[in-house]
Amino acid sequence: MVENRPMTLLDAQATAQRLPYPALLRQVREVLADPSVQVPDRLVQPLPGGGSLFVMPALDARIAMTKLITFTPGNAGTPRPAIQGDVVVFDVKSGERRLVLDGPTVTARRTAAVSLLAAQELAPKPDGPLLVVGAGAQGHAHVEAFIEVLGVQEVLVASRSAASAQALAGHARRLGARAKFTADADAALADCALVVTCTPAAGVVLSGIPRPDAFIAAIGAFTPAMVELAPDLCRHCASQGSVVVDTPLAAQEAGDLLQAGLDAAGFPTLREVLLQAQPGRRGPVLFKSCGWAGWDLAAARAAAG
């Protein structure tokens, strides 16, 4: 008689505890170098009312997972999160369901870990100061990750909601950083070597010209119709610095780059940056992240142990 192991259902807090940033960062690196990793195309099904249903599978030689979430932009600024759902993790050999992780927590933490990896590899000044545009779940995750892993000591927060920005700045101060709200994200670019944009991407939130030593992680826009960065800003980074994308899927999904008239397929991916010798970069670096089930697989690996 075969005895099945019990399945573990983790809430948001328990999921976060399974995903400490150093371990998650290590798994993101390892997923990019693991030849057994397979990531089928994700399914994005539009829903009535403007939301979307995402089905995102991935697997390696040991585990298989699927992230099943809804993305509802209309929930921004309400008590309901914009992202809701679960990540289900299976044992490849036995077929057993091992874990069910909180989908929004996985999404926030794995995205921050990918931005961390890009900053470690690409940022001229990875210790900041940091400007975060957007004070939702992704803003919180990036502030926590950048303070913990990169040692950022100064944070500026911009948001369409001053109250949310003040709350995130207060959270950053409790983590040991100097932090404050800024009403003008473009003006703050002059003071910040690290920038993260993590908004619902319903319109341009950053249009100023970044410093020559700036690193910008733009994560909010993951469809051609979404945008956070002004076209001139993207073109400036492409001509005066460099652009790196998270995966080749950015060629079809990176609204910021596509709306700037840039060929996203011509930019190096994060995998290429890690696996190939890269020449020294000059000028601002734009890292465009659109999301990938491989990042969720990295989180599943970290959580499964």
From TrEMBL:
Annotated Gene Ontology cellular component terms: cytoplasm
Gene3D superfamilies membership: NAD(P)-binding Rossmann-like Domain, ornithine cyclodeaminase, domain 1
SUPFAM superfamilies referenced in this protein's UniProt entry, alphabetically: NAD(P)-binding Rossmann-fold domains
Coiled coil, from the record: none
PANTHER family: KETIMINE REDUCTASE MU-CRYSTALLIN
Name of the protein in its database record: Ornithine cyclodeaminase
Organism: Ramlibacter tataouinensis
